[in-house]
Amino acid sequence: MISGHDVATLLTRHGFDFFTGVPCSLVEDVIAVLEGARDAPYVAAVREDAAVGLAAGAWFAGRRPCVLMQNSGLGTSLNALASLSLMYGLPALIVVTWRGYEGKDAPEHILTGRITPQILELLEIPYRVLSAESAAEDVAWAAKEMDSRMQPVAIIVRPKVVQTGHHGGAATSEASARSAVAPSSRRQGRDATPDQLTPSISRLVAIKAARTAIGGEPIVHANGYICRESFSIGDRPANFYMIGSMGLASAIGFGLTLAQPDRTAVVFDGDGNLLMNFGILAMVGGLAPRRLVHVVFDNEVYGSTGNQISPSRGVRLDRVAAAAGYRAVAVTAAADVQDAIRTALAGDGPHFVLVKTTPEEADVPRIPYTPAEIRDRFRASLSPRLKPTSRSPLQ
Known about the structure:
The protein has helices at residues 4-13, 28-35, 48-60, 72-76, 78-88, 107-122, 135-149, 173-180, 203-214, 225-233, 249-259, 271-276, 280-287, 317-324, 334-346, 371-381; strands spanning 18-21, 42-44, 65-70, 92-97, 127-129, 152-157, 219-221, 239-241, 265-270, 292-298, 301-302, 308-309, 327-331, 351-356. With 395 residues, it is an alpha/beta fold. It folds into two domains: 4-179, Thiamin diphosphate (ThDP)-binding fold, Pyr/PP domains (Rossmann fold, 3-Layer(aba) Sandwich); 183-385, Thiamin diphosphate (ThDP)-binding fold, Pyr/PP domains (Rossmann fold), CATH 3.40.50. It has a six-stranded parallel sheet with strand order 2-1-3-4-6-5, with helices on both faces. A six-stranded parallel sheet has the order 8-7-9-10-14-13, sandwiched between helices. Strand 7 (219-221), helix 10 and strand 8 (239-241) form a beta-alpha-beta unit.
């Protein structure tokens, strides 16, 4: 067997410097070591697909990311891997624990255990099965392959390969993260906004107002008409356009600003996108990145699929965000959109700007670039600060 400390050391030795995922007992000691690390601490994700999104943002910011998940999480992250990591070509190491190995586990793990290698093969993700004897070679292979292939690769961890129960109750990153966050930025309360918000502008008008206020900051766009309408207003390399992976724009922006804490990251989200990844609000509120500006254009419908009603019709998303720890505000007019975003850019956050809009959609073109072109343009736009910072909000 190999210790969790030795696995963590191998990962950092080969340049992995951003860790996120959902825990599994088979690698509990690895996570415990990473939670206590100062240079590259572990970010606890609410879902595995959210962790894949965080890893994408971290890679854009110059990090070498590693996502840890149980093999059941492969199912949860299937679309994120297929239509984000693999489609755009975003390198990451996926450490997958092999519950249900050889049919020896609780009933809920048996089927997934039987098909774990086949899932990776269907995704065309190269993988190796970790052993104590080959661990150093396996991690070195992963680091080389993910960079040369420009895609995720995987290491599968069978039971009883990595020691468990030897981490000695090490302090977690949560405690260190809480101590690093100023009390004034952790629980903001909600702004005094009316109970009923009456939209008066279309999303296109709202996006145009937001773009005017933002200037040159990088913007991660949720998929669908948000991308297309923003593109029609004005294209630039610092726009990351989501083509697939509904719900993950917020995770990408969050990962970017965690990896580069001094860089402002703006997310253009939709109500449907946010609701699909609602747990991101708790993740952002818990770590309180001060340079994240999360703008949600809420038209209360799923516009791309025929204007079906969104659950946001009965939920004030800004108030949920405020309860999670954002500085939250809701607006309905173009001038107020500009004022809210300028205020957010000028002060510490995280900030949440809810923009209520009408369901109207503009007749706008699709994004003309390939996924690889979108990736390369966006990462190059971050190049002046591409080298990872030595300071993290997790420390």
